[in-house]
């Protein structure tokens, strides 16, 4: 009996061993074709598998190699270990699903159609190694991901955002506008939201850490308490978010962050952003405060400064204080992006040294200045078209707006006032100048401008209309001006020097020369003019015969004048301005040897209509000079009128006869002089 039992057990063992060997020798790949055919016909998966490893003694474990689902998924290996398979109940539990060297194309992904007996799929553990994702401009590589306790399918419906625990890392995540590397994540999916409690990554040369919430249902991506450290963040204005999506930052910490845009660069930012939200278009809304080592906006530059920001969809408010242009700055600004408008609520610059570059262009088309105060400001222009420098300038501006190329007032208090210790325009120098002006809806009002100009004094006031015909009123008084400065400034072909006093009172329209009315007076002393030898030219004309009026070549006369320099002891040109013509009756100038009187007019456009007379010591005219036409190419006529025994004085003004002038009748005296 015992022998029989031993033989029976031995036979059963041999039978089991033989069955096990038979099953292991069975090539499961022979079953691959009919199984895949059935799957593709019943699930529309379009599955292909290169090789299967399957042991019937372990029926819940399967290793598939070279797996492909359509043209949207492929993997070198897929390992499947079933926990439970209940086709009749429509429930499948997967203990482990490993995907190795997988590739997923998100743009072509579609939910697989599964039969009813796979209505519920539960995965205890899903692992990926070196998974790659691509689609919609995004690329991710080297993904090691673990997803646990996940039910992606319930009651025949796919639910990709079902609750699950998630952890892993990505070697690289990139987009045309974003680059992340070494991304570590840990969190879960709850109620359709991806909640990552711990996110760490390298971002634009720095580090990012914090927590993240991705809410597809509400189209929101929120970073909670993110910390950006050493990040060099480039911002392209073309960056957008998918329609309807919003990016939120809650209590973001900035540690030595740099921001670069096509026009703005900020370096060394340290601070905090609170409640920032951006919808992908326009500017964000939120609030924050930080300090930065430097910032440049186009040609505007700030050095070390602190800044507070409060923004909404309509207005971006900025309050800043710090160093700028070797001085100090305090500002409260408001930016209205939709209107392209900058509001300068208050701006203070003190002890600054500004440099104007030739390529500077004001970047904002609409500016409203409510209060601007410049104290002890220096300005140096490197632009040849603006040869200006200012030393120790104080300027105060309130309630002025610049828009569409025009200034306009914001209130009845709109004004500009200030003082300048020294102002240089090319070689024209003004010192200790004060000014004040107001702006109304219709005109600029210059209440006062006075200072030391041309080594003399200048006082000016007036008004000018903002709109055509730009009606203008001007009152100007200049005393003891040194003409050598004016000569250098004008870069005249012929240098000149001397002392000049000017008085002007005019009204008119700049575009209408005939509209000017008022009076103009010039009083000069000791005036020297290069290549204008008036005495020599008059002496030669007195020595010649002009018994009747004779036309003379003005060009030749000009060449004759250029042979010598001229000196004028006294100049008195004054008279009313009527219909754009300066009436010079009663005017005269005294050279070294001659007294030359003037009658007639000069138009604002340079048209001459002048009678000049060389006057003897009795006030009689012995040489008549007629100048007409344009002053660039005048017509010149000479005449020596016959003098009666007792001539009628042709000039009786305030300019005296020169002490070195010839006595008696000039023509006789000149001709009586010995030949040189």
TrEMBL record:
Protein name: AsmA-like C-terminal domain-containing protein
Organism classification: Bacteria, Pseudomonadati, Pseudomonadota, Gammaproteobacteria, Aeromonadales
Record PANTHER family: DUF748 DOMAIN-CONTAINING PROTEIN
């Amino acid at each position: 009996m015992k022998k029989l039992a031993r033989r029976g057990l031995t036979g059963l063992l041999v039978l089991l061993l033989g069955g096990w060997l038979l099953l292991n020798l069975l090539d499961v790949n022979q079953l691959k074709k009919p199984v895949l055919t059935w799957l593709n016909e019943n699930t529309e998966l379009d599955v292909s598998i290169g090789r299967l490893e399957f042991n019937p003694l372990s029926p819940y474990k399967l290793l598939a190699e070279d797996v492909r689902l359509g043209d949207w998924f492929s993997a070198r290996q897929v390992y499947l270990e079933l926990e439970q398979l209940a086709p009749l109940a429509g429930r499948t539990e997967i203990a482990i699903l490993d995907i190795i060297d997988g590739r997923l194309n998100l743009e072509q992904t579609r939910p697989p159609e599964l039969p009813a007996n796979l209505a519920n799929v539960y995965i205890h553990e899903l692992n990926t190694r070196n998974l790659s994702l691509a689609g919609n401009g995004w690329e991710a590589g080297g993904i090691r991901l673990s997803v646990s306790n996940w039910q992606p399918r319930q009651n025949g419906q796919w639910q990709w955002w079902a609750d699950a625990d998630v952890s892993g890392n990505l070697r690289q995540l990139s987009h045309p506008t974003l680059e992340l590397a070494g991304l570590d994540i840990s969190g879960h999916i709850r109620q359709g939201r991806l909640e990552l409690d711990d996110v760490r990554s390298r971002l634009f040369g720095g580090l990012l850490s914090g927590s993240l919430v991705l809410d597809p249902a509400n189209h929101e991506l929120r970073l909670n308490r993110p910390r950006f450290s050493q990040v060099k963040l480039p911002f392209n204005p073309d960056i957008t978010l998918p329609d309807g999506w919003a990016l939120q930052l809650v209590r973001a910490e900035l540690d030595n962050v740099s921001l670069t845009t096509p026009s703005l660069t900020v370096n060394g930012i340290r601070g905090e952003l609170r409640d920032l939200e951006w919808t992908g278009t326009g500017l964000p809304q939120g609030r924050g405060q930080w300090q930065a080592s430097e910032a440049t906006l186009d040609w505007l530059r700030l050095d070390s400064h602190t800044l507070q920001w409060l923004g909404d969809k309509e207005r971006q408010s900025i309050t800043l204080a710090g160093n700028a242009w070797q001085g100090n700055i305090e500002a409260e600004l408001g930016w209205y992006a939709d209107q392209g408008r900058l509001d300068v609520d208050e701006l203070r610059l003190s002890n600054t040294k500004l440099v104007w570059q030739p390529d500077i262009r004001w970047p904002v088309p609409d500016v409203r200045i409510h209060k601007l105060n410049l104290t002890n400001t220096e300005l140096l222009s490197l632009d040849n078209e603006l040869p200006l420098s200012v030393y120790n300038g104080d300027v105060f501006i309130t309630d002025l707006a610049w828009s569409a190329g025009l200034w306009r007032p914001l209130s009845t208090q709109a004004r500009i006032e200030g003082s300048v210790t020294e102002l240089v325009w090319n070689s024209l120098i003004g010192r200790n100048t004060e000014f004040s002006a107001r702006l109304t809806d219709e005109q600029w009002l210059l209440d006062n401008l006075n200072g030391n100009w041309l080594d003399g004094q200048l006082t000016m006031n007036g008004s000018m209309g903002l709109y055509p015909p730009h009606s203008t009123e001007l009152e100007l008084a200049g005393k003891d001006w040194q003409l050598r400065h004016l000569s250098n400034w004008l870069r005249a072909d012929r240098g000149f020097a001397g002392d000049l006093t000017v008085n002007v009172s005019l009204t008119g329209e700049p575009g209408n020369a005939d509209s000017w009315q008022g009076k103009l007076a010039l009083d000069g002393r000791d005036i020297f003019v290069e290549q204008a030898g008036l005495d020599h030219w008059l002496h030669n004309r007195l020595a010649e015969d002009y018994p009747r009026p004779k036309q003379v070549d003005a060009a030749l006369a000009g060449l004759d004048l250029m042979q010598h320099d001229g000196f004028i002891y006294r100049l008195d040109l004054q008279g009313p301005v009527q219909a754009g013509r300066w009436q010079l009756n009663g005017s005269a100038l005294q050279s070294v040897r001659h007294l030359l009187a003037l009658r007639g007019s000069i138009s604002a456009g340079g048209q001459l209509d002048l009678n000049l007379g060389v006057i003897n010591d009795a006030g009689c005219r012995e040489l008549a000079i007629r100048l007409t036409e344009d002053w660039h190419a005048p017509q010149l006529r000479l005449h020596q009128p016959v003098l009666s025994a007792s001539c009628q004085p042709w000039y009786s003004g305030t300019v005296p006869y020169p002490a070195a002038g010839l006595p008696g009748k000039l023509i006789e005296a000149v001709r009586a002089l010995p030949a040189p």
